[in-house]
Design a protein that fits this description.
The chain is mainly alpha-helical and 261 residues long. The protein has one domain (22-254). Helix content is 62%, strand content 3%. The strands form two sheets. Strands 1-2 form a two-stranded antiparallel ribbon. Strands 3-4 form a two-stranded antiparallel sheet. Strand 1 and strand 2 form a beta hairpin. Helix 1 runs parallel beside helix 3 (108-119). The chain starts with 19 loop residues before the first helix and ends in a 6-residue tail after the last helix.
Length: 261
Amino acid sequence: MTRIRRKKSDFKPLQKKGSEAELNDYKEQVIEDAKRVNLVLDGGFLLTVIVLLLKSFHWSTIVGWQGISNIPVSSVWVVFLLLTIAHFFLGYLVLVRSAHDLWGANSLKHGEAAYRAIRRSSYVFVNRLRPRTRYLGDILIPVYEMNDLPTILSCIAVILLIPAIVPWDFRDLRLFFIFVIGALFIAVINWLIAGTWIVAVSELTIQHDKATYHTRLHEKRLLSTMAISVVPSILNSISGVIFVFSDIRKRAKEKDGTPSN
């Protein structure tokens, strides 16, 4: 399938829809790009689990394959760093652009079809994904829902990633804290990247002129396509926790017959 690219000058809010063939190409491109991104993420999650199991059984290496020598568990951070670079390229540079192309074509029907295909896939972090189109304030802090399974799994993956990268050895505290900082850096960067492309894909499910992320990207109100997530994504977890606990409190009050404020 040939990737279709539009010149920046061709993007106009509420422009006329393209031909059916063109719209289908945009839709299929988003779906294919999302598959590649999620193969990287699922591979990283599987590696995280394997490394934790190896550490639990005190194994020092990951057995090599296809001529690749054994990889020391203590050096697995290099693999996670390479996966992060792949995530950046496929998610930030490729998928966000594809989603923006489809948004620019102004077809809610094809945007929703692309999103449904992605959330129906078997990939861990997008299966049954709820659209991230609700924001707290003008800086676009996405609001999570407590019953959004990918959000829960993403939080679990971030938590597991830290001990997978950090050596379980406290004899050299300086080295230990260097690894902690490195692990947090990798976790935050991946969260930022995912926060960007998930919002970009989610906004394909709403009206063209209400897609705040794509509108700002089109109007060049962002320093970059990722700028929208730098500060907001750091606050994503906080806003998500606030929403979850406020929702639990509301449900508890409703169950007790107490009217919620």
